[in-house]
Amino acid sequence: MNIDDNRYYMSGCFHEAGHALAALAVGAKDISVFMEPYPRCKGHTKFGYGPLNPDQTNPQHRKALQDLIFVSAAGTFAELIFWTRQPDELRPLERRNDYGDQDHMRGYAALLETASTKAEQFIEKGQSECDAFFVNVTNYPLLKAVADRLFDNEAIDDPNLRALAASLDSSAIGRT
């Protein structure tokens, strides 16, 4: 299968690659990412990061929750990068909703919410961080390399993701 056969499948690959790179950027462990076989346009990114039962008063736990918002938002941003590189006539008229990602962001943000800072502000911060992360052109080669491998039905585990990042000199994978 080549990209012309199914751009939607490739956009899903970019989506999952975005989650994986964001997880790598926040220092997650045991990252794995894969796409279900074509024609299903569904992928999965798994990783270990943050406390299982976060304490909203603990600063490290609060940072981890904000990082998880960033990771949740990253799939959508990576997918948009894919579509902006496609000819106008091949772009979808509507963008599909990522209800799972949205639910995750809302859940993390609800735990961060305080009397002075609403949950939506934490979501906006995570989305702003994604924008800055993916605007950094040094991150694109790794994003594309991961998406290409997913498109070829290759599952990528943590050691392979880190080796790929090292081979592409992705030292700038960190967030600003």
What does this structure look like?
The protein has 176 residues and is mainly alpha-helical. It has a single domain (3-173), classed as Methane Monooxygenase Hydroxylase, Chain G, domain 1 (Up-down Bundle), CATH 1.20.58.760. 56% of the residues lie in helices and 7% in strands. It has helices at 7-26, 59-84, 99-112, 119-135, 140-151, 158-167; strands spanning 29-35, 43-48. Strand 1 (29-35) and strand 2 form a beta hairpin. The chain is globular, with a radius of gyration of 16 Å. The mean pLDDT is 87.
Shape annotation: globular
The structural domain count equals 1
From the helix content, strand content and strand pairing, which structural class follows? mainly alpha
Tell me the major beta sheet.
Answer: 2 strands, antiparallel
CATH superfamily label: Peptidase M41
On the 0 to 100 scale, the average pLDDT is 87
> Kindly, what is the distance between the CA atoms of the first and last residues, rounded to a whole number of angstroms?
37 Å
Uncertain runs with pLDDT below 50, 5 residues or more? Answer: none
Order of helices and strands: HEEHHHHH
Number of strands: 2
How much helical structure, as a percent, in the residues? 55-70%
How many DSSP H or I helices? 6
Please state roughly what percent of the residues sit in beta strands, choosing from under 5%, 5-15%, 15-25%, 25-35%, 35-45% or over 45%.
5-15%
* CATH structural architecture: Up-down Bundle
What name is given to the CATH topology?
Methane Monooxygenase Hydroxylase, Chain G, domain 1
Task: Give Rg in angstroms.
Answer: 16 Å
CATH class: Mainly Alpha
Identify the strand order in the major beta sheet.
1-2
